[in-house]
């Protein structure tokens, strides 16, 4: 399969909460890689390709937990894996320090950690 990503993904293990834009309940997920355009995650609940979602990410940096601003995005692909689901999410906007300072910090942290 041809690689379609413009940016290299950086590995991270981070907790996340995800919900459909039409839903009311947050579901647990795990972020496994990220870049400024999107991320890949694993979820116990299914998500649908093309679905609009909201996500909150919590990551650990130097023994301190940080929770990223609530983000919106679109699920670009999904794949069942056993009883879980893998998915790729594209953010609805460009990440910048002014609007998303904690997410920007997360990206800077994983850039340093993945060298």
Write the layout of secondary structure elements.
Layout: E1 10-20, E2 27-34, E3 38-43, E4 52-61, E5 64-67, E6 71-81, E7 84-91, H1 101-113
Antiparallel strand pairs: 1-2, 1-4, 2-3, 3-7, 4-5, 4-6, 6-7
Q: Order of strands in the sheet with the most strands? A: 1-2-3-7-6-4
Cα-to-Cα separation, first versus last residue: 26 Å
- What coarse outline follows from CA principal-axis ratios? globular
Helix-strand makeup class: mainly beta
- How helix-rich are the residues, as a percent range? 10-25%
Strand residues, percent = over 45%
| Total strand segments | 7
Q: What's the story with the biggest beta sheet?
A: 6 strands, antiparallel, barrel
Rg computed from alpha carbons, rounded to a whole number of angstroms: 13 Å
Mean pLDDT figure: 87
What does this structure look like?
With 115 residues, the protein is mainly beta. The protein has one helix at residues 101-113; strands spanning 10-20, 27-34, 38-43, 52-61, 64-67, 71-81, 84-91. The chain has a six-stranded antiparallel beta barrel. β2 (27-34) and β3 (38-43) form a beta hairpin. The longest helix has 13 residues, at 101-113. The protein is globular and about 30 Å long. The two termini are 26 Å apart.
Provide keyphrases for this structure:
115 residues; mainly beta; six-stranded antiparallel β-barrel; 1 helix; 7 strands; 11% helix; globular
């Amino acid at each position: 399969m041809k690689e379609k990503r413009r940016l290299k993904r950086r590995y991270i293990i981070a907790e996340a909460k995800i919900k459909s834009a039409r839903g009311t309940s947050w579901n647990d997920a795990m972020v496994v890689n990220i870049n400024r355009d999107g991320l890949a995650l694993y979820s116990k609940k299914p998500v649908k390709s093309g679905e609009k979602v909201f996500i909150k990410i919590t990551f650990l940096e130097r023994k301190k937990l940080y929770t990223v601003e609530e983000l919106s995005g679109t699920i670009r692909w999904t794949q069942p894996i056993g009883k879980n689901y893998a998915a790729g999410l594209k953010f609805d906007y460009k990440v910048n320090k002014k609007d998303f300072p904690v997410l920007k910090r997360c990206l800077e942290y994983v850039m340093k950690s993945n060298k």
